[in-house]
Amino acid sequence: MALPYESATSGERALGEIQKLLRGFGCSKFGSMIDDTEGTLLVQFEYRGKPVSVKASTSGYAAAWLNEHPWTSRMHCTKQQHEKKAVEIASVAVYSIIRDWIKGQVTAIETGILTFEGAFLAQMLLPSGKTILEHAQQSNLLPAPKEQA
Predict the structure, then answer these.
(1) Order of strands, edge to edge, in the sheet holding 50-57?
(2) Domain coordinates of the chain in residue numbers?
(3) CB under 8 Å to 45, separation ≥6 — which residues?
(4) Residue 111 φ/ψ region, left for φ over 0, alpha for ψ in the -120 to 50 degree band, beta for the rest
(5) pLDDT for 43-101, tens place per residue?
(6) In this structure, are strands 50-57 and 29-35 parallel, antiparallel, or unpaired?
(7) Cα-trace Rg, the chain
(8) Cβ distance 99 to 14 under 8 Å?
């Protein structure tokens, strides 16, 4: 079974689409960063003085891709080459996923389904530089997940 977005081709072009979408929505600031060491893509923007930071794990997607497409000795590549391919696919896919997620959130706001805060609350930055979600997790404000039977 194919993993969603594994055939995506837009890659970094999706960042331009995100920037265009956010500017059209009224955002005054926009930036992005890739952290190869941590395996994350970071997109930041500001809306009416409210800073937002969206972080996505490229390493998480790569791990999911490797789970769907495990390496075998019958492949015409080494295990390391296969893992490198997973990282390359993930780096393209995550751009498209973030673009589509932000587009969905903005559409929900524009159509009155959600408020800005409802759509981006977890990603809003506090004066400390942490997102509200990071603060809630570090302060144990969220209940622990229940064990499944």
Answers:
(1) 29-35, 40-47, 50-57
(2) 13-138
(3) 22, 27, 29, 30, 31, 51, 52
(4) alpha
(5) 999 999 999 999 999 999 999 999 999 999 999 999 999 999 999 999 999 999 999 99
(6) unpaired
(7) 18
(8) yes
